[in-house]
Amino acid sequence: MLRTRFTEVFGVEHPIVQGGMMWAGRAELAAAVSQAGGLGIVTGLTQPTPAALREEIARTRDLTDKPFGVNLTILPSISPPPYAEYRQAIIDGGVKIVEIAGGNPATHLPYLKDAGIKVLHKCTSVKHAVKAQQVGVDGISIDGFECAGHPGENDTPGLVLIPAAAREIEIPMIASGGFADARGLVAALALGAHGVNMGTRFLCTAESPVAQVVKEQIVANSELDTQLIFRTMGNTARVADNAISRRVVEIERAGGTFDDVRDLVAGARGRKVFEDGDLDAGIWSAGQCQGLIHDIPTCADLIARMVREAEELITGRLTNAVVAGAGVRP
């Protein structure tokens, strides 16, 4: 069994976390991941109201007695959601782990800490990870350029970002972006992380509440089948390659502004992709790890396979490696 500082501090069996994903982080998926020994995450803002989030938390608890968390993503907005009310719904629901992404977690930390909640903060740079550690979060999720969603503006891939962050971070840290199998898990541990966070991989599982055609498209896609949108706006996002994302990139290259793509990138259109299976209805997040995904397993099978193969790699191939001259021979 893989025991790390992350599993010890956050009280989970395996160092594998399901990332909070808009429209996908629902009770069925989060509970399946947690029941299999990982850390499932319910996406707070997928629920339309704080009251609905309370119900989703209760529904998750009906499906598993294992630890699970709730994601709260804080983004600038003209009409921001009632974050304080969503936060209170999390506290009232007895959730003990919160993943915060986007904005500074300091605003929410006193309330969450007083409720005995451990906070995992998602960062895309060493600078922000260090700041989050300083303000008192319990763990860091460091997000490399390969990830789905927002990778930040530094374009630093995990192979560099993870060890750079590990040099500065003293609290448990998990690695995000590009992880889909046991090889990635072992690599993350070798680079200084204490586990991995996976979004796209868990999107493509039996319990994922998205249309089957979306899962089949992820299996069919390669690592090349993503687009980077909002590059010209300083808010880069990695999404699946489709007619809409290609059109957004074209408009940006022609000098377009956010107003010119607003209708194309509307969240309601992305939700339609996941719920109706219309792959060109809108933009939808997917990472480069699509190229490593070749099946649609249950969460239990995926996690068991990853842990088993990671242990085999560590105790087999890597243990038996011998230094031969300037290289390492298996």
Short description:
With 330 residues, the protein is of the alpha/beta class. The chain is built from 14 helices and twelve strands. The two termini are 23 Å apart.
CATH topology of the largest domain: TIM Barrel
Uncertain segments are: 322-330
Describe the global form: globular
Q: What's the average pLDDT? A: 95
Describe this structure in words.
This protein has 330 residues and is an alpha/beta fold. The protein folds into two domains: 5-209 and 295-307, TIM Barrel (Alpha-Beta Barrel); 226-285, no CATH class. The chain is built from 14 helices and twelve strands. The strands form three sheets. It has an eight-stranded parallel β-sheet with strand order 1-8-7-6-5-4-3-2. α7 links the parallel β6 and β7 (173-176). α2 packs parallel to α3 (50-63). The longest helix is centred in the C-terminal third of the chain and has 19 residues, at 299-317. The relative contact order is 0.13. Mean pLDDT is 95; it is low at 322-330.
